[in-house]
Design a protein that fits this description.
The structure is a homodimer.
Chain A: E1 6-11, H1 16-28, E2 33-37, H2 45-51, H3 55-59, E3 62-64, H4 67-71, E4 77-80, E5 91-93, H5 94-105, E6 110-114, H6 123-126, E7 131-134, H7 146-160, H8 178-194, H9 205-217, H10 222-248
Parallel strand pairs in A: 1-2, 1-6, 2-3, 4-6, 4-7, 5-7
Protein backbone atom coordinates (compact mmCIF):
# COMPACT_ATOMS: atom_id res chain seq x y z
CA UNK A 1 0.00 0.00 0.00
CA UNK A 2 0.95 3.61 -0.38
CA UNK A 3 2.54 4.72 2.87
CA UNK A 4 1.86 8.36 2.04
CA UNK A 5 -1.62 7.54 3.35
CA UNK A 6 -0.32 7.53 6.92
CA UNK A 7 0.75 10.76 8.60
CA UNK A 8 2.84 10.95 11.73
CA UNK A 9 1.81 14.08 13.66
CA UNK A 10 4.00 15.42 16.47
CA UNK A 11 2.16 17.91 18.67
CA UNK A 12 4.42 20.62 20.10
CA UNK A 13 7.66 18.61 20.21
CA UNK A 14 10.16 20.43 22.40
CA UNK A 15 13.45 18.72 21.49
CA UNK A 16 14.63 19.17 17.90
CA UNK A 17 16.78 16.04 18.27
CA UNK A 18 13.61 14.02 18.69
CA UNK A 19 12.19 15.43 15.46
CA UNK A 20 15.24 14.23 13.57
CA UNK A 21 15.14 10.84 15.26
CA UNK A 22 11.46 10.54 14.33
CA UNK A 23 12.25 11.25 10.67
CA UNK A 24 14.83 8.48 10.68
CA UNK A 25 12.53 6.04 12.49
CA UNK A 26 9.84 6.76 9.90
CA UNK A 27 12.07 6.25 6.91
CA UNK A 28 13.48 3.05 8.40
CA UNK A 29 9.93 1.75 8.47
CA UNK A 30 8.81 3.10 5.11
CA UNK A 31 6.80 6.12 6.27
CA UNK A 32 7.35 9.57 4.81
CA UNK A 33 4.68 12.07 5.82
CA UNK A 34 5.67 13.99 8.94
CA UNK A 35 3.59 16.88 10.30
CA UNK A 36 4.82 19.12 13.11
CA UNK A 37 2.32 21.11 15.13
CA UNK A 38 3.93 24.19 16.59
CA UNK A 39 7.41 22.74 17.22
CA UNK A 40 9.50 24.70 19.71
CA UNK A 41 12.63 24.71 17.52
CA UNK A 42 12.55 23.75 13.88
CA UNK A 43 14.48 23.62 11.62
CA UNK A 44 17.44 22.90 13.87
CA UNK A 45 20.93 21.46 13.40
CA UNK A 46 20.26 18.71 15.94
CA UNK A 47 17.17 17.57 14.04
CA UNK A 48 19.22 17.41 10.86
CA UNK A 49 22.03 15.48 12.56
CA UNK A 50 19.74 12.86 14.08
CA UNK A 51 17.68 12.43 10.91
CA UNK A 52 20.85 11.00 9.36
CA UNK A 53 19.85 9.40 6.04
CA UNK A 54 16.24 10.56 6.40
CA UNK A 55 16.92 14.18 5.53
CA UNK A 56 14.31 13.93 2.78
CA UNK A 57 11.57 13.10 5.30
CA UNK A 58 12.70 16.00 7.46
CA UNK A 59 12.86 18.41 4.51
CA UNK A 60 9.33 17.57 3.43
CA UNK A 61 7.87 17.82 6.95
CA UNK A 62 4.88 20.16 7.14
CA UNK A 63 4.82 22.68 9.96
CA UNK A 64 1.36 23.83 11.07
CA UNK A 65 -0.02 25.84 13.95
CA UNK A 66 -2.84 23.60 15.18
CA UNK A 67 -3.82 19.97 15.47
CA UNK A 68 -6.87 20.76 13.33
CA UNK A 69 -4.64 21.86 10.45
CA UNK A 70 -2.49 18.77 10.86
CA UNK A 71 -5.50 16.49 10.61
CA UNK A 72 -7.22 18.26 7.71
CA UNK A 73 -8.20 15.74 5.05
CA UNK A 74 -7.62 12.76 7.34
CA UNK A 75 -10.05 9.97 7.97
CA UNK A 76 -9.05 7.64 10.75
CA UNK A 77 -7.17 9.24 13.62
CA UNK A 78 -5.21 7.40 16.25
CA UNK A 79 -3.73 9.01 19.34
CA UNK A 80 -0.96 7.58 21.48
CA UNK A 81 -1.14 7.60 25.23
CA UNK A 82 1.29 6.27 27.78
CA UNK A 83 -1.03 6.74 30.71
CA UNK A 84 -3.83 4.41 31.62
CA UNK A 85 -5.40 7.32 33.50
CA UNK A 86 -7.76 8.19 30.67
CA UNK A 87 -10.48 6.16 32.22
CA UNK A 88 -13.25 7.01 29.81
CA UNK A 89 -11.23 6.14 26.75
CA UNK A 90 -10.84 2.62 25.51
CA UNK A 91 -7.28 1.87 24.65
CA UNK A 92 -5.90 -0.64 22.15
CA UNK A 93 -2.54 -2.37 22.11
CA UNK A 94 -0.36 -0.88 19.37
CA UNK A 95 0.08 -4.27 17.73
CA UNK A 96 -3.64 -4.94 17.49
CA UNK A 97 -4.26 -1.43 16.23
CA UNK A 98 -1.70 -1.50 13.42
CA UNK A 99 -3.81 -3.66 11.11
CA UNK A 100 -6.82 -1.43 11.71
CA UNK A 101 -4.87 1.71 10.81
CA UNK A 102 -3.80 0.15 7.53
CA UNK A 103 -7.35 -0.86 6.67
CA UNK A 104 -8.70 2.59 7.42
CA UNK A 105 -5.89 4.24 5.46
CA UNK A 106 -7.23 2.58 2.33
CA UNK A 107 -10.36 4.72 2.63
CA UNK A 108 -8.76 8.05 3.52
CA UNK A 109 -5.40 9.23 4.90
CA UNK A 110 -4.87 8.11 8.49
CA UNK A 111 -2.98 10.02 11.17
CA UNK A 112 -1.14 8.95 14.29
CA UNK A 113 -0.87 11.69 16.91
CA UNK A 114 1.99 11.93 19.41
CA UNK A 115 1.99 14.44 22.26
CA UNK A 116 4.81 16.60 23.52
CA UNK A 117 7.66 15.11 25.53
CA UNK A 118 6.45 16.47 28.83
CA UNK A 119 2.70 16.61 28.70
CA UNK A 120 1.65 14.06 26.11
CA UNK A 121 -1.69 14.81 24.47
CA UNK A 122 -4.44 16.75 26.19
CA UNK A 123 -7.81 15.16 26.78
CA UNK A 124 -9.21 17.44 24.09
CA UNK A 125 -6.62 16.18 21.62
CA UNK A 126 -7.32 12.58 22.59
CA UNK A 127 -10.97 13.17 21.85
CA UNK A 128 -10.12 13.97 18.23
CA UNK A 129 -9.08 10.35 17.81
CA UNK A 130 -11.13 7.35 16.79
CA UNK A 131 -8.84 5.06 18.72
CA UNK A 132 -6.27 5.43 21.46
CA UNK A 133 -3.24 3.20 21.35
CA UNK A 134 -0.71 2.32 23.98
CA UNK A 135 2.71 0.75 23.78
CA UNK A 136 3.13 -1.92 26.43
CA UNK A 137 5.89 -0.99 28.86
CA UNK A 138 7.19 -1.79 32.30
CA UNK A 139 5.20 -0.48 35.21
CA UNK A 140 8.46 0.64 36.76
CA UNK A 141 8.96 3.21 33.99
CA UNK A 142 6.24 3.55 31.40
CA UNK A 143 7.20 6.76 29.67
CA UNK A 144 8.99 6.12 26.39
CA UNK A 145 11.01 8.78 24.67
CA UNK A 146 8.94 10.42 21.90
CA UNK A 147 11.06 9.16 19.02
CA UNK A 148 11.14 5.67 20.54
CA UNK A 149 7.35 5.63 20.64
CA UNK A 150 7.21 6.66 16.98
CA UNK A 151 9.75 3.95 16.19
CA UNK A 152 7.63 1.22 17.73
CA UNK A 153 4.40 2.41 16.12
CA UNK A 154 6.13 2.67 12.74
CA UNK A 155 7.66 -0.78 13.25
CA UNK A 156 4.28 -2.33 13.98
CA UNK A 157 2.78 -0.60 10.94
CA UNK A 158 5.65 -1.87 8.81
CA UNK A 159 5.12 -5.41 10.03
CA UNK A 160 1.37 -5.20 9.55
CA UNK A 161 1.97 -3.98 5.99
CA UNK A 162 3.79 -7.24 5.35
CA UNK A 163 7.15 -5.56 5.28
CA UNK A 164 8.93 -8.46 6.95
CA UNK A 165 11.14 -10.08 4.40
CA UNK A 166 14.04 -11.43 6.32
CA UNK A 167 16.01 -13.98 4.43
CA UNK A 168 16.24 -16.51 7.20
CA UNK A 169 17.90 -19.09 4.99
CA UNK A 170 20.34 -17.12 2.89
CA UNK A 171 22.69 -17.88 0.06
CA UNK A 172 24.41 -20.77 1.83
CA UNK A 173 22.58 -23.27 -0.34
CA UNK A 174 20.00 -25.98 0.29
CA UNK A 175 20.05 -28.03 3.46
CA UNK A 176 21.77 -31.38 3.26
CA UNK A 177 19.31 -34.19 2.61
CA UNK A 178 18.88 -37.15 4.97
CA UNK A 179 21.09 -39.43 2.87
CA UNK A 180 23.96 -36.96 3.03
CA UNK A 181 23.44 -36.56 6.76
CA UNK A 182 23.45 -40.32 7.23
CA UNK A 183 26.74 -40.63 5.35
CA UNK A 184 28.18 -37.92 7.55
CA UNK A 185 27.13 -39.75 10.70
CA UNK A 186 28.53 -43.04 9.41
CA UNK A 187 31.76 -41.37 8.52
CA UNK A 188 31.90 -39.73 11.94
CA UNK A 189 31.22 -43.02 13.74
CA UNK A 190 33.96 -44.68 11.71
CA UNK A 191 36.48 -41.99 12.63
CA UNK A 192 35.50 -42.11 16.29
CA UNK A 193 36.20 -45.82 16.23
CA UNK A 194 39.52 -45.36 14.44
CA UNK A 195 40.70 -42.85 17.01
CA UNK A 196 39.42 -45.05 19.83
CA UNK A 197 37.06 -42.44 21.13
CA UNK A 198 34.23 -44.24 22.89
CA UNK A 199 31.34 -43.18 24.99
CA UNK A 200 32.24 -44.39 28.48
CA UNK A 201 28.65 -44.48 29.65
CA UNK A 202 26.51 -46.47 27.26
CA UNK A 203 28.65 -48.23 24.73
CA UNK A 204 28.50 -45.71 21.91
CA UNK A 205 24.84 -45.39 20.99
CA UNK A 206 24.30 -42.62 23.50
CA UNK A 207 27.25 -40.65 22.16
CA UNK A 208 26.20 -40.95 18.51
CA UNK A 209 22.68 -39.93 19.44
CA UNK A 210 23.94 -36.77 21.01
CA UNK A 211 26.17 -36.00 18.07
CA UNK A 212 23.30 -36.63 15.66
CA UNK A 213 21.03 -34.29 17.57
CA UNK A 214 23.70 -31.65 17.70
CA UNK A 215 24.27 -31.66 13.94
CA UNK A 216 20.59 -31.94 13.13
CA UNK A 217 19.88 -28.93 15.32
CA UNK A 218 22.50 -26.98 13.40
CA UNK A 219 20.55 -27.69 10.17
CA UNK A 220 23.63 -28.16 8.00
CA UNK A 221 23.68 -27.27 4.34
CA UNK A 222 25.41 -29.46 1.76
CA UNK A 223 28.51 -27.39 1.68
CA UNK A 224 28.90 -27.64 5.43
CA UNK A 225 28.47 -31.42 5.30
CA UNK A 226 31.18 -31.56 2.66
CA UNK A 227 33.48 -29.50 4.85
CA UNK A 228 32.90 -31.80 7.83
CA UNK A 229 33.45 -34.90 5.77
CA UNK A 230 36.62 -33.38 4.38
CA UNK A 231 37.81 -32.88 7.94
CA UNK A 232 36.95 -36.48 8.82
CA UNK A 233 38.83 -37.72 5.75
CA UNK A 234 41.81 -35.56 6.71
CA UNK A 235 41.79 -37.03 10.21
CA UNK A 236 41.82 -40.52 8.71
CA UNK A 237 44.66 -39.87 6.30
CA UNK A 238 46.66 -38.06 8.96
CA UNK A 239 46.21 -41.07 11.22
CA UNK A 240 47.33 -43.40 8.47
CA UNK A 241 50.44 -41.31 7.84
CA UNK A 242 51.01 -41.03 11.59
CA UNK A 243 50.47 -44.78 11.84
CA UNK A 244 53.19 -45.33 9.20
CA UNK A 245 55.49 -43.05 11.17
CA UNK A 246 54.81 -44.92 14.37
CA UNK A 247 55.64 -48.22 12.73
CA UNK A 248 58.92 -46.83 11.48
CA UNK A 249 59.99 -45.75 14.94
CA UNK B 1 11.05 -14.38 34.81
CA UNK B 2 14.01 -12.54 36.18
CA UNK B 3 15.07 -10.01 33.59
CA UNK B 4 18.53 -9.81 35.10
CA UNK B 5 19.10 -12.98 33.09
CA UNK B 6 19.28 -10.95 29.88
CA UNK B 7 22.24 -8.66 29.21
CA UNK B 8 22.28 -5.92 26.62
CA UNK B 9 25.84 -5.56 25.33
CA UNK B 10 26.87 -2.49 23.33
CA UNK B 11 30.13 -2.98 21.49
CA UNK B 12 32.17 0.22 21.14
CA UNK B 13 29.29 2.70 21.13
CA UNK B 14 30.54 6.05 19.87
CA UNK B 15 27.75 8.43 20.91
CA UNK B 16 27.17 8.82 24.66
CA UNK B 17 23.62 10.02 23.94
CA UNK B 18 22.85 6.61 22.51
CA UNK B 19 24.07 4.90 25.70
CA UNK B 20 21.64 6.98 27.74
CA UNK B 21 18.80 6.33 25.31
CA UNK B 22 19.56 2.60 25.49
CA UNK B 23 19.34 2.68 29.30
CA UNK B 24 15.93 4.32 29.07
CA UNK B 25 14.71 1.92 26.38
CA UNK B 26 15.81 -1.00 28.57
CA UNK B 27 14.09 0.23 31.70
CA UNK B 28 10.92 1.00 29.75
CA UNK B 29 10.88 -2.66 28.77
CA UNK B 30 11.91 -4.10 32.11
CA UNK B 31 15.57 -4.86 31.37
CA UNK B 32 18.34 -3.72 33.68
CA UNK B 33 21.71 -5.28 32.85
CA UNK B 34 23.71 -3.08 30.48
CA UNK B 35 27.29 -3.89 29.50
CA UNK B 36 29.46 -1.45 27.55
CA UNK B 37 32.47 -2.76 25.65
CA UNK B 38 35.07 -0.07 25.25
CA UNK B 39 32.70 2.93 24.90
CA UNK B 40 34.29 6.00 23.35
CA UNK B 41 32.90 8.41 25.97
CA UNK B 42 31.42 7.20 29.22
CA UNK B 43 30.27 8.44 31.68
CA UNK B 44 29.03 11.54 29.87
CA UNK B 45 26.48 14.25 30.57
CA UNK B 46 24.58 13.46 27.38
CA UNK B 47 24.21 9.82 28.40
CA UNK B 48 22.84 10.94 31.76
CA UNK B 49 20.43 13.41 30.16
CA UNK B 50 18.99 10.90 27.71
CA UNK B 51 18.72 8.13 30.28
CA UNK B 52 16.11 10.32 31.98
CA UNK B 53 14.36 8.16 34.59
CA UNK B 54 16.67 5.20 33.89
CA UNK B 55 19.68 6.66 35.69
CA UNK B 56 19.81 3.51 37.82
CA UNK B 57 20.35 1.31 34.76
CA UNK B 58 23.07 3.68 33.57
CA UNK B 59 24.74 3.81 36.98
CA UNK B 60 24.92 0.04 37.22
CA UNK B 61 26.23 -0.43 33.66
CA UNK B 62 29.38 -2.52 33.50
CA UNK B 63 32.24 -1.21 31.39
CA UNK B 64 34.61 -3.84 30.02
CA UNK B 65 37.42 -3.90 27.51
CA UNK B 66 36.47 -6.84 25.33
CA UNK B 67 33.45 -8.72 24.03
CA UNK B 68 34.80 -11.83 25.75
CA UNK B 69 34.61 -10.13 29.14
CA UNK B 70 31.12 -8.89 28.39
CA UNK B 71 29.94 -12.40 27.58
CA UNK B 72 31.64 -14.18 30.48
CA UNK B 73 29.14 -16.42 32.25
CA UNK B 74 26.57 -16.19 29.49
CA UNK B 75 24.87 -19.09 27.81
CA UNK B 76 22.85 -18.15 24.75
CA UNK B 77 24.23 -15.28 22.72
CA UNK B 78 22.34 -13.35 20.10
CA UNK B 79 23.90 -10.80 17.77
CA UNK B 80 22.05 -8.12 15.86
CA UNK B 81 22.75 -7.40 12.24
CA UNK B 82 21.17 -4.92 9.91
CA UNK B 83 22.84 -6.23 6.83
CA UNK B 84 21.73 -9.31 4.96
CA UNK B 85 25.29 -9.51 3.60
CA UNK B 86 26.35 -12.14 6.10
CA UNK B 87 25.67 -14.89 3.68
CA UNK B 88 26.96 -17.78 5.69
CA UNK B 89 24.94 -16.84 8.74
CA UNK B 90 21.34 -17.77 9.16
CA UNK B 91 19.31 -14.86 10.41
CA UNK B 92 16.10 -14.87 12.45
CA UNK B 93 13.40 -12.23 12.64
CA UNK B 94 13.62 -10.44 15.98
CA UNK B 95 10.04 -11.36 16.83
CA UNK B 96 10.57 -15.05 16.26
CA UNK B 97 13.82 -14.95 18.21
CA UNK B 98 12.45 -13.24 21.31
CA UNK B 99 10.73 -16.35 22.66
CA UNK B 100 13.88 -18.39 22.10
CA UNK B 101 16.01 -15.90 24.01
CA UNK B 102 13.66 -16.11 26.98
CA UNK B 103 13.70 -19.89 26.96
CA UNK B 104 17.47 -20.02 26.84
CA UNK B 105 17.78 -17.38 29.56
CA UNK B 106 16.12 -19.83 31.93
CA UNK B 107 19.17 -22.08 31.62
CA UNK B 108 21.90 -19.44 31.82
CA UNK B 109 22.15 -15.67 31.36
CA UNK B 110 21.57 -14.65 27.75
CA UNK B 111 23.19 -11.72 25.96
CA UNK B 112 22.14 -9.59 23.02
CA UNK B 113 25.04 -7.96 21.20
CA UNK B 114 24.78 -4.64 19.36
CA UNK B 115 27.60 -3.28 17.22
CA UNK B 116 28.89 0.26 16.99
CA UNK B 117 26.92 2.96 15.19
CA UNK B 118 29.14 2.99 12.15
CA UNK B 119 30.46 -0.49 11.69
CA UNK B 120 27.99 -2.81 13.40
CA UNK B 121 29.50 -6.07 14.57
CA UNK B 122 32.50 -7.67 12.92
CA UNK B 123 32.22 -11.13 11.42
CA UNK B 124 34.33 -12.42 14.29
CA UNK B 125 31.89 -10.95 16.80
CA UNK B 126 28.93 -12.38 14.91
CA UNK B 127 30.54 -15.78 15.13
CA UNK B 128 30.37 -15.62 18.93
CA UNK B 129 26.60 -15.75 18.66
CA UNK B 130 24.30 -18.76 18.56
CA UNK B 131 21.76 -16.81 16.57
CA UNK B 132 21.74 -13.66 14.48
CA UNK B 133 18.68 -11.50 14.57
CA UNK B 134 17.49 -8.79 12.27
CA UNK B 135 14.89 -6.08 12.68
CA UNK B 136 12.74 -5.81 9.58
CA UNK B 137 13.12 -2.41 7.94
CA UNK B 138 12.53 -0.61 4.68
CA UNK B 139 14.90 -1.42 1.86
CA UNK B 140 15.15 2.30 1.20
CA UNK B 141 16.91 2.83 4.54
CA UNK B 142 17.65 -0.21 6.63
CA UNK B 143 20.04 1.18 9.19
CA UNK B 144 18.31 1.90 12.49
CA UNK B 145 19.83 4.12 15.11
CA UNK B 146 21.56 2.00 17.79
CA UNK B 147 19.20 2.95 20.61
CA UNK B 148 16.19 2.40 18.35
CA UNK B 149 17.40 -1.12 17.61
CA UNK B 150 17.78 -1.82 21.33
CA UNK B 151 14.30 -0.40 21.88
CA UNK B 152 12.71 -2.78 19.40
CA UNK B 153 14.58 -5.83 20.67
CA UNK B 154 13.69 -4.93 24.27
CA UNK B 155 10.08 -4.35 23.23
CA UNK B 156 9.84 -7.76 21.60
CA UNK B 157 11.42 -9.41 24.65
CA UNK B 158 8.94 -7.58 26.88
CA UNK B 159 6.02 -8.76 24.78
CA UNK B 160 7.35 -12.31 24.66
CA UNK B 161 7.68 -12.25 28.46
CA UNK B 162 3.98 -11.62 28.60
CA UNK B 163 4.42 -8.04 29.63
CA UNK B 164 1.46 -6.81 27.63
CA UNK B 165 -1.21 -5.84 30.07
CA UNK B 166 -3.07 -3.04 28.43
CA UNK B 167 -6.38 -2.41 29.99
CA UNK B 168 -8.34 -2.20 26.77
CA UNK B 169 -11.67 -1.93 28.62
CA UNK B 170 -10.94 0.43 31.46
CA UNK B 171 -12.89 1.69 34.44
CA UNK B 172 -15.84 2.85 32.38
CA UNK B 173 -17.90 -0.11 33.56
CA UNK B 174 -19.37 -3.17 31.88
CA UNK B 175 -20.77 -2.99 28.38
CA UNK B 176 -24.50 -2.46 28.10
CA UNK B 177 -26.35 -5.74 27.64
CA UNK B 178 -28.57 -6.45 24.61
CA UNK B 179 -31.77 -5.61 26.50
CA UNK B 180 -30.47 -2.19 27.44
CA UNK B 181 -29.33 -1.62 23.87
CA UNK B 182 -32.72 -2.65 22.55
CA UNK B 183 -34.44 -0.18 24.88
CA UNK B 184 -32.09 2.52 23.67
CA UNK B 185 -32.92 1.79 20.03
CA UNK B 186 -36.66 1.75 20.75
CA UNK B 187 -36.35 5.02 22.60
CA UNK B 188 -34.36 6.49 19.73
CA UNK B 189 -36.86 5.30 17.12
CA UNK B 190 -39.67 6.84 19.16
CA UNK B 191 -37.90 10.19 19.37
CA UNK B 192 -37.12 10.15 15.66
CA UNK B 193 -40.78 9.66 14.98
CA UNK B 194 -41.78 12.40 17.43
CA UNK B 195 -39.47 14.88 15.75
CA UNK B 196 -40.65 13.74 12.32
CA UNK B 197 -37.19 12.68 11.24
CA UNK B 198 -37.60 9.98 8.61
CA UNK B 199 -35.29 8.14 6.32
CA UNK B 200 -36.16 9.47 2.85
CA UNK B 201 -34.84 6.41 1.06
CA UNK B 202 -36.29 3.25 2.53
CA UNK B 203 -39.08 4.10 4.93
CA UNK B 204 -37.16 4.02 8.19
CA UNK B 205 -35.71 0.51 8.46
CA UNK B 206 -32.57 1.46 6.61
CA UNK B 207 -31.99 4.45 8.88
CA UNK B 208 -32.48 2.51 12.11
CA UNK B 209 -30.19 -0.21 10.82
CA UNK B 210 -27.44 2.29 10.26
CA UNK B 211 -27.95 3.84 13.66
CA UNK B 212 -27.94 0.44 15.32
CA UNK B 213 -24.70 -0.49 13.62
CA UNK B 214 -23.13 2.81 14.58
CA UNK B 215 -23.94 2.39 18.27
CA UNK B 216 -23.05 -1.29 18.33
CA UNK B 217 -19.68 -0.48 16.81
CA UNK B 218 -19.08 2.03 19.57
CA UNK B 219 -19.57 -0.77 22.14
CA UNK B 220 -21.41 1.39 24.66
CA UNK B 221 -21.19 0.79 28.37
CA UNK B 222 -24.22 1.10 30.65
CA UNK B 223 -23.38 4.57 31.76
CA UNK B 224 -23.16 5.76 28.17
CA UNK B 225 -26.52 4.18 27.35
CA UNK B 226 -28.02 5.99 30.35
CA UNK B 227 -26.54 9.27 29.15
CA UNK B 228 -27.98 8.77 25.66
CA UNK B 229 -31.39 7.81 27.02
CA UNK B 230 -31.28 10.86 29.25
CA UNK B 231 -30.69 12.99 26.20
CA UNK B 232 -33.57 11.33 24.37
CA UNK B 233 -35.85 11.93 27.36
CA UNK B 234 -34.75 15.56 27.50
CA UNK B 235 -35.55 15.97 23.81
CA UNK B 236 -39.02 14.57 24.45
CA UNK B 237 -39.80 16.77 27.45
CA UNK B 238 -38.43 19.83 25.69
CA UNK B 239 -40.70 19.08 22.75
CA UNK B 240 -43.69 18.68 25.04
CA UNK B 241 -42.98 22.00 26.70
CA UNK B 242 -42.39 23.58 23.31
CA UNK B 243 -45.61 21.95 22.09
CA UNK B 244 -47.49 23.51 25.03
CA UNK B 245 -46.00 26.88 24.16
CA UNK B 246 -47.01 26.53 20.54
CA UNK B 247 -50.53 25.69 21.50
CA UNK B 248 -50.70 28.79 23.65
CA UNK B 249 -49.63 31.09 20.82
Amino acid sequence: MDTSDIRIVLVEPSHPGNIGAVARAMKNMGLERLVLVNPRQFPHSEATARASGADDVLASARVVATVQEALAGCGFIVATTSRPRDQYFRVADVRDAAERVLQEARRAPAAVLFGSERAGLSNEQLEAAHLLIQIPASEAYQSLNLAMAVQIVAYELFRARGGVQIDTAPAAGPLADPVEMERLFEHLAQVLEEIDFRDRTQGGTHLMGRLRRLFQRAALDRNEVNILRGILTAIQSRRRRAGDGTERE
